[in-house]
Amino acid sequence: MHIHKAALASLALAAATAAPACAAAPWPVATVQAEQEDDSDLQSFADAIGKARIVALGEQTHGAREEYLLKTRLLKFLHQKMGFDVLLLESGFYDIARLAERVERGEKLDDIAPGNVFFMYANSAEGRGMLRYVDQQRALGRPMALGGIDSQHTGALSKAELLTRLQAYLHTTAPALANGAAWRQYARTAQPLLEMQRTPPSSAEQAAFRQHAAALKDALCASGPAKPPEPQGAAFWCQTVKSVDAQAASYWSADHDYQRDNQMGDNAIWLADRLYPGRKVVIWAHTVHVARGFQRTPAHLQAGEVMHRHWGQDYKVVQFSGAGGEILDFATMSKLPLPAIAPDSLEAALAAKAGGANAVLGLAGADAAGARPQFSYEYGTHSGARLGVNWDVLFFIRNITPVSMSR
Q: pTM above the 0.90 mark?
């Protein structure tokens, strides 16, 4: 995830700001051990997920060790005990599709992730636990299908080959769009986006890019939904071109026309409903991308709100929070202390209930404390979000420690 800190504070809430209070109920305790044979402490979690087909595992900072350990344990539980067998990552849509091909051919995801999977997942010891679990399960004959939801293409594969492979595909399906001045101008303008260059090109270059992008979408996105898409056929390239278009809109407007998350939600929906229809899906991403109710403007939704509007109750969100400690700030790679929690916050109530436990599971509507203001340790920003409104399950971790970078 790459998002300006100032932009986080500008997120508005489309949903209500308080969860309904109800009768008090006990808070079941969960551990954050990477491996544990007895999953009885996760029964309340399983009950909260119920029959939902899509479960998003959020994270507030990308840099908390206990979040990754607990997320990996929840991933194992969802996969092995609840039948979830698709994993969608906050990483480039194109890059993960290409990695998935290589994994199918026998390469290990942990080996090929650096430079293509978001670097806090690919390079931290704790993030790599998730990658290694995917490799282990494939070796055992219990594979998880893979996909990337991010419309922001920053991986090495995108930089090196996305446009070349798109042109090669167009040569076989729409050769007029793969040749000539219009294609060359489109490619010259798109490549800097893949290099994460935010400087806008000239107005004429932007206009030519958008004109050719529109022609590409007309050609690639025309197939109806009845026929299942090929893994890297026209529908795949349609999503890729739409993603590059969204990246252009966000970068060239300095995020005033922020289309990244709208397209992230669209990518997730395409992967879950078109490429993997009927299968149960785990989404692994930052909470700011997967929570319900977040928007910048009515036209600029965060991905979680896009997905919630599409899937409704079939979409569940899991959040994590804490009472103190440190994280590794992915933007500066320095340790960042977490601000003190407010005494009237939900986290303060959970800390009192936790006793000596390191993680406490909060369920939407399980306690009157669910209506309390919730603290966000995302760089000290208070989001005003609520358990039961913006997410369905909250794991409270008493003390957060930083991830360790292993490569």
A: yes
